[in-house]
Structure formats: structure tokens, C-alpha cells
Specification:
By secondary structure, the chain is an alpha/beta fold. It is 23% helix and 26% strand. It is built from 11 helices and 17 strands.
Length: 346
């Protein structure tokens, strides 16, 4: 076993504290990664507080991992010591089901193995990226292109792929009108990526306080959803709306903003059930969809795309002893736009 210093939540809703964890030995196809940076995702907070159901404790969150390979198993062919790499939201899957074989490991029929708050194939709990190192099978590691610095690349491993996947799947590109709901850790990457894909991009946010940022990041238009006139003015406008918020929305109102046969794709995951009048979908032949991260190949494609277009996350770099404060600030929307932990401070 390899040990690593880490920050863990000892119990639900408890402050995270410094601890030492054990990592498995580097196996035949494993890569040992010295973690340099780890992003703080809102889903880390949901899970550390058991907002999405019963969880495994102690919990070391973190699935936006960027680092450097420090050792490889004898059977590893994809990576070498010194390579710049990333790990996202999953570290294994069954690899045999229809979805895994199609490169959609995130939808593994038997369930993928999450980077943390999961059970690995060895029967042991998985621990995430708020740590000095991690051991991961090479097939679930991606290469970070030289054009991206590791600190701004880390959030791409969740926030980046979470937006890239539905934007590609639903055809964001030239001639398409795309709306991003929420300008936070996810939404700001949605604006950047949709703009780089050539779409006309609108931000739909509660207020106009981030309008200047939204336009700087690549939005063509910015509207406040707290203003009822917004929904009148934009009725029937969009080919695709991607909602990044984790609070319940008036989905009937947002569906009214779609063109005929438009799509509302959800990547934000509210803890509570939503209410929906099905006529909001039936009336215009509209689609209410969901999307969850992306497969490994698509994640690599996203990183290459972001490097090509110079897209990194907008980050605030913090020390490990600021994690609990950062959690509070995320919950009060006080971050522009992603906290990233400098893991050298753990």
C-alpha cells in the first residue's frame, strides 16, 4: 500500500480535515499520479453532505484531478513517468456492457466506479483527488495537452466534459441558438465551449450581476430570469438549452423558450423532484433530456478541443486549509468560477 495525505469528511456534513489514506499498490495496468491540482465541484458538497443519498465515510472528495505520472505498472502502454494527466468522475467500469464497448462508460449498465464515494473492484472504498496522489487504471486516465496549464485544466475533468458532451450531442454549432442556464462552475465552461463551437450563446441567470463576465467569456446575450419579461421576449428562441443549476426550476417556463423540436438538457442535479406539465413538452415536440459527464474517449476529445481553442476554467486557487471556507462560498455562489486546491498545501 501507498499512503497519501488527504482532506476527508469524517461524517455527513462534518468539516473536512487533514488525514492519511492508503492507496493500492501500482498494479499491472495502473498509473500512480502525483496530484498537482484538484477542483472543487458542487457535487463534492452534495455528496459530503449526503444530499444525494447515503454515502461512504470517511470521504475524500475530488473528481477534477490534474497531475503528473510518477510510476506505471509493467503492463501500462498509454502513459510514461512525467506525463501530464487527468482523472475525472470515474476510475473503472465493467468494460463489457454495450455502453462500455461504445465508449459510454459513464452509463455502464452495471454502474461505473466513481472516483470517490464508491467501491472499487477490490471491494475497497474509492478516495478522490483532495490528496497528494492517486492510483488509477490507465484506461481511465486522460492526457492533458501541453497547451493547457494543469491548474485551469483540472475543472475540465468534470465541468468541461459535463458541458461539452450535451453541446456536441445536441448539435451546438454555427447557426444554432444555445442558452446556458446559470453562470457558475459548469455554466461558465458551457459558454466558452458553445462559443468555440460557433453557436450563438445566451446566458440565462437569476440576475445581471455577472453579465460583464458572461459577455467576456463568449456569450452574445445575457438575460435575468428574475425578470418576467425575459420569458415573454425569448419565447420560442432556442434550439438547445443546457441547465447547469442544481436548484429546482420552473421547467414549464424554460421549455417555452425552445423552438419547435428543441431540447432542454439537464446537467445540474437538484436534490428534490421537479414538477412538470407534460403539455410543455408535447405542444412543440420538445425534448427534456439529461446528460452525465462523458466517456473516456470523449473526455480526451474535449481536452484536445479546449487546448486547441485556449479554453481553461476561470479559477480561484486555494490552499487545502481553505476547503471548508470554499464549500461555504460555493453554496452562496461566491466564486468566479471554480475553486482549485493546490495539493502541494495538503
Amino acid at each position: 500500500m501507498t499512503t497519501a495525505a488527504a482532506y476527508a469528511a469524517p461524517a455527513p456534513k462534518a468539516p473536512l480535515e487533514r488525514t492519511t489514506i492508503e492507496r493500492r499498490e501500482v498494479g499491472e495496468h495502473d498509473v500512480l499520479i502525483d496530484i498537482k491540482f484538484a477542483g472543487i465541484c458542487h457535487s463534492d458538497i452534495h455528496q459530503a453532505q449526503e444530499g444525494w443519498g447515503e454515502a461512504i465515510f470517511p470521504m475524500v472528495p475530488g473528481h477534477e484531478i490534474a497531475g503528473v505520472v510518477s510510476a506505471v505498472g509493467p503492463g501500462v502502454t498509454k502513459f510514461a513517468v512525467g506525463d501530464r494527466v487527468g482523472v475525472g468522475c470515474m476510475v473503472d467500469s465493467c468494460r463489457e456492457c454495450e455502453n462500455c464497448k461504445a465508449g459510454r462508460e459513464q452509463y455502464c449498465v452495471r454502474g461505473n466506479v466513481p472516483t470517490y464515494n464508491g467501491i472499487g473492484k477490490d471491494g475497497e472504498p474509492t478516495y478522490g483527488g483532495y490528496a497528494q496522489n492517486v492510483v488509477v487504471d490507465e484506461n481511465f486516465v486522460v492526457r492533458i495537452p501541453d497547451g493547457l496549464s494543469l491548474d485551469v485544466a483540472a475543472p475540465l475533468l468534470c465541468a468541461g466534459i459535463t458541458l461539452y458532451s450535451p453541446l456536441r450531442r445536441f448539435g451546438a454549432g454555427p447557426g444554432k441558438k444555445i442558452a446556458i442556464v446559470g453562470l457558475g462552475g459548469l455554466g461558465h465552461m458551457g459558454v466558452k465551449i458553445a462559443h468555440a463551437l460557433g453557436a450563438e450563446v445566451t446566458v440565462l441567470s437569476q440576475s445581471l450581476r455577472k453579465q460583464e463576465d458572461g459577455l467576456r467569456l463568449g456569450a452574445d446575450h445575457y438575460y435575468a430570469t428574475s425578470d418576467p419579461k425575459t420569458f415573454e421576449e425569448l419565447a420560442g428562441t432556442f434550439d438547445l438549452i443546457v441547465s447547469t443549476v442544481s436548484a429546482p426550476l420552473d421547467f414549464n417556463a424554460y421549455l417555452s423558450l425552445l423552438k419547435t423540436e428543441g431540447t432542454l438538457a439537464n446537467v445540474g442535479a437538484p436534490e428534490e423532484p421537479i414538477s412538470l406539465n407534460l403539455f410543455s413538452v408535447i405542444g412543440g415536440g420538445k425534448t427534456l433530456a439529461g446528460s452525465m459527464i462523458g466517456g473516456i474517449a470523449e473526455t480526451q476529445e474535449m481536452l484536445d478541443f479546449c487546448a486547441e481553442h485556449g479554453l481553461g476554467a476561470e479559477i480561484e486557487l486555494i490552499r487545502a486549509d481553505q476547503i471548508n471556507e470554499a464549500y461555504e462560498r460555493v453554496q452562496s455562489s461566491d466564486v468566479r468560477y471554480r475553486f482549485v486546491i493546490d495539493t502541494a498545501t495538503i
